[in-house]
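Homework help thread (please don't just give me the answer)

Our assignment gives two proteins as sequence + structure token strings and asks us to describe the second one. The first is just a warm-up. Here they are:
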Amino acid sequence: MACAKLNAASSQWIGQQSFTQRQGSSSSSSTRFATRRVSFPIRAKAYNEELVQTAKTIASPGRGILAIDESNATCGKRLSSIGLDNTETNRQAYRQLLLTTPGLGEYISGAILFEETLYQSTTDGKKFVDCLRDAKIVPGIKVDKGLVPLPGSNNESWCQGLDGLASRSAEYYKQGARFAKWRTVVSIPCGPSALAVKEAAWGLARYAAISQDNGLVPIVEPEILLDGDHPIDRTLEVAEKVWSEVFFYLAENNVLFEGILLKPSMVTPGAEHKEKASPETIAKYTLTMLKRRVPPAVPGIMFLSGGQSEAEATLNLNAMNQSPNPWHVSFSYARALQNSVLKSWQGRPENIEAAQKSLLVRAKANSLAQLGKYSAEGENEEAKKGMFVKGYTY
């Protein structure tokens, strides 16, 4: 950031700007002007226009994000559920199935990849990023390095990965990524402590600033975990606190709001609460939180599913789109798009077409939900099964 300066004798500061004041003497017929120094920031980021355009492309009507950024260990858990070993070949085969699904770009605008996937190709030698581009899907990349214990907290976590992030982001951009994702978490049963909330917000803000400096639209994701037996009002209270901190530090770090996307949790009761909330209630509470905390300059709100069933995640999104919103309200789902796909595939080549059709069914359902036109009529029982895992990590 460059700083332009003018000579000045005195300074009255308002924020980062100082303004010249005229000073004179009533006993003198001549008016003297004090020499002053004026200092203000000049921000001319090379990628600003591109960031805004990328964010708008991802936040396009009827489309959302496919999250396939699971670490190799977590992808291994998914594969083991259908009896496959956690090998690079099997991970490649599964991700190829997803990324080469015909017609996927009609419903999916962005795909978050793990680093391994960003550099992989199909078995025919075509880069995965080129498969996405051909389908008019923007390639993205997970850039955080995972959660570790936060010293001094109430058994809470913080997200690591800022060291070396600038150089890694520059390389990801060269490889074709145009947006990034950083996930940190907040646990309601653990407090959450003021320390954990501030750490989450500051880390997200530093990551977002670094990403934008390197041409990547940052997805800002402080996930408020579903764990706990608390009511929905407690989730709302915590969510409002977390997002107020996040936007305070985003502003402190000069992050361009028009060039970011958010990936919040929906405001729901804790997974172990005795009463479940309806989609209409979840929509009401979630939109209340967003309207109180998120500036309309932000182009897209891409919700995570957080262990909801496939059908629940779609129904809740649909309820939020029954009236106009200041932002594009959509989805960035992992398990809520992939669960049926895995069960259809079972690791067998002859099932690839059926598995891809399963992906299109779920992607289309969420596309309709983004438009507020989804109906649960005809949903199978498998899609209604919850996927919450207590203490889930990935």
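The one we have to describe:
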Amino acid sequence: MTAVPAQSTRWMKYFMDIYGQAKPPVLGSFAVKEIEDKAREVMKDHLPAYMYTFGSAGTCSTDAANRRAFNRWKIVPAMLKDCTKRNVETTILGEKFHAPLFIAPVGVQGILHADGELATARAAAACGIPYIMSSASSRSIEDIAKANGPNGQRWYQLYWPVTDEITISLLNRAKTAGFTALVITLDTMLLGWRPHDLDTAYIPFYYGVGIQVGLSDPVFMKRSGYEPVHETTKFPFEPEKVRNAALNAGDADAQKAMKLGKAWLGETNSGTFRSWDDLQFIKDHWDGPIILKGIQRVSDAEKAIEMGIHGIIVSNHGGRQVDGAIGSLDALSKVMRSPKVLAAQTKGDLTVLFDSGIRTGSDVIKAMAMGAQGVLIARPYMYGLSIAGQAGVEQILMQTVADMHITMGLCGYSDVNDLIGKRDELLEPVDD
């Protein structure tokens, strides 16, 4: 799939090309459920990798709650509106974007495809969609920035290390590599209870995969007694081979990978919980917008305003951290009823973004009508990555915005920015 023009008309062009093409889409379908099923089939010989990426905490009830929340809110279209010309461009935190859609930070992409995060970063740039890089990536900060290119828009997501010097090093590297905003994930100070991973002891980090940000960091590697490296992880990832090589064959490289994996996990998912006061350290060492990801309570959103934080992402990590939790769209509904949040958003003091459960363009519209200024997409593009690499990610991004572009007009809106906060006129709650 090739890049399309930078103007907003790219999405309509993509829609028209779909109807005019003589061959099926690269993913075989535009239906997200069929794409999901195909991704599982592609990964059938590596099911633990599939489950690690797409599974959720406990009984997966929070993941299900995310989708139920979307299903409870129905769109009420308005007729006879002039929506012939439609705009989906927006400005968030002072930066102009072609659409209010972001690549969510998903780690360890190298267990699903040989190109891993590089394919996703290239796809994001080709489609004009901003890329948020995970600290748990299977490629280095610098290599991903290079793949995203000079015109790519990118933010860096931080799993906050225990060691201050390592944190400062990561922030400096991200800034140097052209990442313009910092996303701090608050809900993963330690990994959630995920039975599917525990049953198979599938933790890639312990075997040196998903720690490439650490392996390429001079401060972390010096503390561990090594020189930094920018490596490409092997695909498919087979942890039992690494474990057997390290324990039974005495393979020095495998032993090193496991040693460093344990050390990096101890830095970034150590179980060390941070406080609101600790945010000052990040503010002192990051010159740019700071966004807090994982907000679910109104009181936390209001505290972020008090702390002078630039933005929040209402997210429950796609249901991967806490079983039995509230659906993220339900959380957004509560947050956006706060007079303090609304006032800060209106003044431009707080940007509100949304994550968890997005599958279609209609979902994007619902989240924005609820009050989000932009939306993160995760699982769908990872389905596309596992099936067809960069081209698969491109299809997911293009079809999601094309869907939003079309549906927005059919609902009576010609500018995506006019959707924000229009819950009472655009959405109607129904019984679950």
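TA reply:
I won't write it for you, but here's a hint about the kind of observation we're looking for: The first helix runs from residue 10 to 20.
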